[in-house]
């Protein structure tokens, strides 16, 4: 049963519908309002500022990424160069140890400890100059 004005004991009265000879039709007319030019320019300027800020942030992140990549590349090159330097130092040390043995095998002799070795001075630059003139 329907609830009528706070009392359930009252029987609702049927509503008579009288149909008129004509039917009223309502048509909704929507008028399109235009956005003023100043407001359009404000929106455009806001979008341009947002795009500029976003592109600046992206550019900075790209620059930071590039610097990090260069730093990693330099670190790997430094590690490779340190490894090569240690190998070359080891080779230098072994060559220093074997140079006396190699010289003795080739026929060179060790001088006495207190002897003075005199090497005649030869002007290499004048010889080169004379040969280049000829």
Automatic annotation (TrEMBL):
Keywords: Membrane, Transmembrane, Transmembrane helix. The chain crosses the membrane at residues 41-62. It comes from the Bacteria. This is Cell division protein FtsL. It comes from Paenibacillus antarcticus.
């Amino acid at each position: 049963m329907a609830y009528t004005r706070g009392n359930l004991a009252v029987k609702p009265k049927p509503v008579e519908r009288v149909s008129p000879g004509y039917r009223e039709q309502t048509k909704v007319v929507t008028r399109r309002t235009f956005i003023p030019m100043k407001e359009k320019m404000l929106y455009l300027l806001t979008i341009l500022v947002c795009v500029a800020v976003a592109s600046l942030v992206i550019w900075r992140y790209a620059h930071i990424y590039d610097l990090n990549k260069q730093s990693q590349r330099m670190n790997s090159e430094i590690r490779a160069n340190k490894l090569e330097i240690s190998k070359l130092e080891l080779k230098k040390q072994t060559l220093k140890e074997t140079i006396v043995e190699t010289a003795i095998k080739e026929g060179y002799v060790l001088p006495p400890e207190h002897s003075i070795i005199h090497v005649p001075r030869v002007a290499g630059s004048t010889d080169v100059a004379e040969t280049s003139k000829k």
